[in-house]
Design goal:
7-stranded mixed sheet
Length: 520
């Protein structure tokens, strides 16, 4: 059996997204035991079946708790591959090969939302009733590297969500979820924070984040509490745009950021590439940084309103218009970094306004030569008006002693670090660490983790061995911050400084796309 669990198909997801009036669902608190909240305005409390239960009094503190009932059941799966959220096609190809090789159930599924840091795809083998059975089968696999054993929930834990007033009395309860709806949608907002009952003081809510729209309080797959902010995508962007590129960015760069952020969210929802069955996105930068209403800025609101409903379209489909802080001077194609299909709008090029054809940097010496010489890239910090906080990301160096890196790598005493494969954009796509055991990483985030979370995969390595052949030191020479695909935010920032408008900025970073307005 080969099974894909990626939040439904694209057509179904697109239909649902339109039906919900282009709203997004963002996890703003996840896997917590209790919450404190306060409505800045009156809120209706609605049960999962749509029945109104009560009304929250404005400015009164309330508390949310869960009670646990029947425990859930578990299955254990061997994780063969863990991939970035964009790598659906490689995951499916690998899963088909695994199914043919082993004859056991193989699944491609979204990594459950646990650490709030990233959305991943995993390819799993087998469905074992006990951890011991999974471990025993693991021992029979001689040539297949199992990343880890994943504990899946065949049936979610049962329980109840309860809303309590300041006196501790239960004012609403439901076995699935409670929905909090502002009576004044335009003016209402809700303060929300994780609750530590032994330390909580009412004034703590004054420092809590505030959220527009509705909030859904639900029991998640792990049997803990998740708060989901359900709001119109434009309100979501009011917070995201400034959080991602900086509120002080030129207004045309803010507009470009609004279009790509909107386009990325729309494309991911329409394609069913979401973080959980309960919500679309986390509020962290691995999705898009969302901090609620208190992070809004008048210049950002102006930029979002000026581009309302606008997304990038290629071949009639919303573009997953990803972006990163700094490309280091070379924009990578999506295929360079994540594999899979070649998307015509994602083209490798130099981040410059003229003569932007990029050289082939798949050879390590060529990549090192490029990052070692001066460049007129748009994201080069040696320009007037470049933000000071971002200068450290264009070129960077990390150094490890042999002992430090051996402790980090977890393969015993390290002998060598080898770049086995590099894309034409200079990004490392396969890294081998040779020690008492050999370990290979061939995924962008996995490679960056292997080097203690370096800023990007646009790097070269200089290992030095001691007289016994063991690693004495390792130096990593790098460029850029992030995956390097799509819009380089610092390049867009500087294009805005130079007087280019947002349409010109978008045309520079995305080839042959059109701007389409989904709604007004």
């Amino acid at each position: 059996m080969l099974c894909l669990l990626l939040a439904g198909g694209p057509a179904k997801a697109q239909e649902k997204f339109r039906a919900r009036n282009f709203r997004v669902r963002v996890a703003v608190q996840h896997e917590v035991e209790a919450l404190a909240l306060q409505g800045l305005g009156a809120y209706q409390v609605i049960a999962a079946n749509g029945r109104p239960l009560t009304q929250m009094t404005a400015f009164d503190p309330y508390f949310v708790q869960i009670t646990r009932g029947q425990p859930g059941s578990r299955l254990y799966r061997l994780v063969l591959r863990e991939l970035d959220a964009h790598q659906v096609d490689p995951a499916v190809e690998y899963a088909k090969a695994a199914k043919d090789a082993y004859g056991l159930p193989v699944k491609v599924l979204r990594m459950p939302a646990r650490d709030r840091h990233e959305s991943r795809i995993i390819v799993t083998l087998g469905e074992f009733q006990t951890l011991e059975a999974a471990r025993n089968y693991h021992q029979t696999l001689k040539n297949e590297k199992v990343r880890y054993i994943y504990e899946d929930r065949a049936r979610a834990e049962q329980g109840e969500v309860r809303l309590l007033n300041r006196q501790g009395s239960i004012v609403a309860r439901d076995s699935r979820f409670l929905r909090l709806v502002p009576l004044d949608i335009a003016a209402g907002s809700l303060r929300l924070m994780e609750l530590n009952p032994s330390r909580f003081k009412a004034n703590d809510l004054l420092e809590a984040r505030r959220y527009r729209g509705e909030v859904e309080l639900t029991i998640n797959e792990e049997g803990t509490l998740t708060a989901v902010n359900d709001l119109w995508i434009e309100y979501y962007l009011y917070s995201v745009v400034g959080g991602e590129i900086g509120q002080d960015a030129p207004v045309e760069a803010l507009k470009a950021q609004a279009v790509v952020a909107r386009s990325e969210a729309v494309a991911k929802i329409q394609r069913g590439i979401v973080s959980s069955s309960f919500f679309d996105f986390f509020d962290t930068p691995i999705a898009q940084l969302y901090r609620g209403k208190q992070e809004e800025d008048p210049r950002v609101l102006q930029a979002v309103d000026a581009t309302r409903g606008e997304i990038l379209v290629w071949n009639g489909q919303a573009v997953d218009a990803v972006y990163g802080h700094s490309c280091g001077g070379v924009i990578a194609s999506a295929h360079d970094v994540w594999g899979g299909m070649h998307e015509g709008y994602s083209v490798r090029r130099l981040d410059r306004l003229v003569n932007d054809k990029a050289p082939d940097l798949s050879n390590g010496s060529d990549a090192h030569a490029y990052t070692s010489k001066p460049t007129d890239a748009l994201c080069n910090p040696e320009q007037a008006g470049f933000p000071a906080y971002a200068k450290k990301y264009f070129r960077w160096t990390r150094r490890f002693s042999g002992a430090e890196f051996s402790a980090l790598a977890g393969v015993g005493r390290v002998k060598d670090v080898v770049v086995e494969r590099r894309s034409p954009s200079g990004r490392v796509t396969r890294l081998k660490i040779i020690g008492d055991r050999t370990w290979v990483a061939d995924d962008e985030l996995e490679i960056r983790r292997a080097l203690d979370h370096v800023n990007s995969t646009f790097f070269t390595v200089l290992p030095v061995q001691d007289e016994n052949g063991y690693l004495k030191s390792l130096t990593v020479y790098g460029a850029g911050f992030g995956h390097g695909v799509g819009m380089c935010q610092m390049g867009a920032f500087m294009m805005g400084k130079k007087g280019y408008n947002y349409r010109q900025i978008l045309a520079h970073y995305f080839t042959d796309v059109k701007i389409r307005r989904l709604y007004r």
